[in-house]
Every structure is written in C-alpha cells, then in structure tokens.
Amino acid sequence: MAAKLRPKLSLNSQPKKNRPEGEAAQFYDMYPNKCGRFMFGLYNLRPTSVCGLVRGATSRSGFSGTTVCQRRPRRTGRLDMELRPSGVRSVSHTTVDPAEVRRFHSLAGKWWDEQGEFGALHAMNDLRVPFVRDNLLNVHRAHHPGKPLAGLRILDVGCGGGLLTEPLGRLGASVLGVDPVEDSIATARLHSSHDPDLADHVAYRACTLEQLAAEGEQEEHGGAQFDAVVASEVVEHLADLEMFALSCQNVLKPGGSLFITTINKTNLSYALAIVAAEKLLRIVPNGTHDWEKFISPVELERLLESNGFSVQSVQGMLYNPLSGAWSWTNSTSINYALHAVKRSEEDGSSHPEDHAAHS
After folding, report:
1. CA separation (Å) from 5 to 2, 8, 14, 187?
2. Where in the chain do CATH 3.40.50.150 domains reside?
3. Is 158 annotated as a binding residue?
4. 237 annotated as belonging to a binding site for a ligand
5. Helix (H) or strand (E) holding 228
6. Distance (Å, rounded) from C-alpha 118 to C-alpha 131?
7. Where is the region Disordered (predicted)?
8. CATH class for domain 92-266+285-358?
9. Are the C-beta atoms of residues 187 and 109 closer than 8 Å to each other?
10. DSSP state, residue 159
11. Greatest CA separation found in the chain?
C-alpha cells in the first residue's frame, strides 16, 4: 500500500491550536519557519526559561550562555513594569552616564556604516523621520514645498553621528545636534560637510542637554528657543530622566513638540532587545543596552506630565531582523515612539492646535 503523502502546511495555515493569538501572532507570523518558532518561544518564556534557551543555543558555539543570563537584572519592586514614582535615575543631576560615553566613544567612527553596528538606526529613519515631520506639520501649518519644516528649529539630543539630524535638515528645518561624545560630533561634522545643502540647516555641538538649557537661561530671551526636541534611542542610555525632562521643557517654546523613541521595560524587550539582538543575532554591539534603564510608556508619560508636557500619541515599533526593516505596530511591548507637547505657560493649554492658532 502506497504511503499517504502528508500535506505541507504553510506558516499561515498552521492548525489554530498551535498558533498564538492576539499580540503574539505578529511575532510568530513575521519570522518564518524555525526563526518564527524561536521568536515566539522567547515571547512566551519566563526570564529563567529564556536563560535556559540561550544556554542551549550558545553552548554549541562555545559562547557562554551563563554569562548572558547572569546579568539579567532582578526585579525587587511590587510593580514589575514601572519605575518608582520618584525615578530611579534621579540621583546624579546630569543626563550623562560615563560608562555610556565610553561605550559610544569606541563606536564613534562607525555611525555611517549602514551594514555595521548602527544599521538598525539607519533603517529606523523610515519611521522616525515621517513621525517627526507629520506631527510637526499638524502643529505648524505653513506650506513650504520641498522643505516642509522650513522655519522650524529642532534640537536633536544624543545625535551621535547625525543619522537623524541630516534628514531633518534636508526637510528645511534648522537642526542643532548635541552629544557629549566629542568624537561622534566630529564624525557628524565631517559627514555633513560633504553635502553643501546642509551648511545652512545643520550644526553640531559637543555638549549635554542640561548645559544647553543652562546657557539658554542666561540669555535675555530665556532658554525656550526650539520648536521641537528629538531624543531617538537616547533615554535608555541616560543617567537622570528627571533632568532630561526638565531640560527639554526649558529649551522648548510653549507648544513645542518632544519626540522620543525608546524601549519598553518588559520581559519581551529583555528577550529580544538584549538576548536576541545583542547576544545571539549581534544586530547591535554586546552591552549596548541595560534593561534597568528601559522605561514603560506609562512611566514615561507620567514623568513628562509632571514636567509640563501633554502626551499626544504613543505608537509601537517592530524591527524585522530578516528584512532589516521597521514597521508600526499596535504593540508597545518592545520599541515605541512618543510625541508630547509642552503646555502653554499662559493658559495651561495642552493641545498642539492651540499653539498653532497663535503661531
């Protein structure tokens, strides 16, 4: 008797009982075959199970899975997903973490290698540039064909080599990129010098956000000088988030916009942003992130609201390591983008359209 042929099932035709539902399904469907099952496994596993999986996956290559997992931070609070209301990083009164400065100093010459350590940041421009542009155009309705952000001043905090500074400048904005790593600023200046069109739109300074805010307070017109502040993939590297929020508030004009992209503080973000991205897939250099510095959208919104901002939107972001592309998602469990507006000093308005009416 001839053997019955077993029909092959595509990923999307898997029996319902074997497929995840809801938020988990997007991770399962994004990565085909074994990679999909691996990512879905990371999504579902508890932290201790993630470590066991990593040890098994790395033992064959000689890499120590124990080393990966012993750095997993312990949770000691009652709330797993939130920082203490007072802020666990409000002790240094500076946004700069010396360890982070040393780490990025060693990478300062690699910012513009699209196939290197910062490849994922290059790809993120496909989302974060339109995110900044479109939200600013909703507030500032002046029409400048070809240069939609003309007339606006933007501060790019933690600009690195200028990966986001340059495209914002090409949209017509006057952009100042600041970073405490002098070698990164040197890289940014060198790269922008190759494009004469950026000369009148992009400038760089090796300084901190709080230094810039303090200088502004000394000036006659006060420190509020920017229409927008952008901090993309920055807050998870800072030492003091309270100082960051206060400094952003000080340098922004009333009704000005604050744009942040960062990483949520969840089991999934640890599994994918650290274990998978750093230890296994090597998408970013090992040691780039510290899970204890991640912050949930709820806690970030609370921090900003207490410092004079009104959060307008929060949107999840998802990176596909197979295609090297980012996409928007309803889930904020890993990466997310946030747009907030500085409340008006005169009337306490929290709506950007109120500012637009007076601009």
Report:
1. 9, 9, 17, 60
2. 92-266+285-358
3. yes
4. yes
5. strand 226-232
6. 20
7. 1-22
8. alpha beta
9. yes
10. -
11. 94
Q: Which amino acid is at 331?
A: S
Helix pair 241-251, 209-218: axis angle to 10 deg: 40
Percent of the chain with pLDDT over 70: 69
Q: Rounded distance, CA 306 to CA 161, Å? A: 31
Rg, the chain, Cα only = 22
Distance between terminal CA atoms of the chain?
Answer: 82
Which strands sit side by side in the sheet containing 252-263, from one edge to the other?
202-205, 174-178, 153-157, 226-232, 252-263, 335-342, 309-320, 325-329
pLDDT above 90 as % of the chain: 59
Taking alpha carbons only, the member of 269, 261, 262 closest to residue 27 is 269
Q: What letter would DSSP give residue 198?
A: G
What does pTM read for this prediction? 0.77
Q: What are 125-174's pLDDT values in tens digits?
A: 999 999 999 999 998 877 788 899 999 999 999 999 999 999 999 999 99
Tokens found for residue 97:
């973490």
Contact 209, 240 (CB under 8 A): no
What are 74-104's pLDDT values in tens digits?
Answer: 433 333 333 334 444 554 589 999 999 999 9
DSSP 37-50: HHHHHHHHS-HHHH
Q: Which residue in 202, 304, 299, 215 sits closest to 257, CA to CA?
A: 304
To the question of whether residue 233 is assigned a binding role by annotation, the answer is yes
- How far apart are alpha carbons 359 and 352 in whole angstroms? 11
Q: 232: annotated binding-site residue? A: yes
> Residue 285: which of 98, 116, 160, 54 has the closest Cα?
116
Instruction: Reply yes or no on whether the pLDDT at 34 is more than 90.
Output: no
Distance in angstroms (rounded) separating the CA atoms of residues 254 and 252:
6
> Which pLDDT tens digit goes with each residue over 300-346?
999 999 999 999 999 999 999 899 999 999 999 999 999 999 998 65
Residue 172 near residue 150 (C-beta atoms within 8 A):
yes
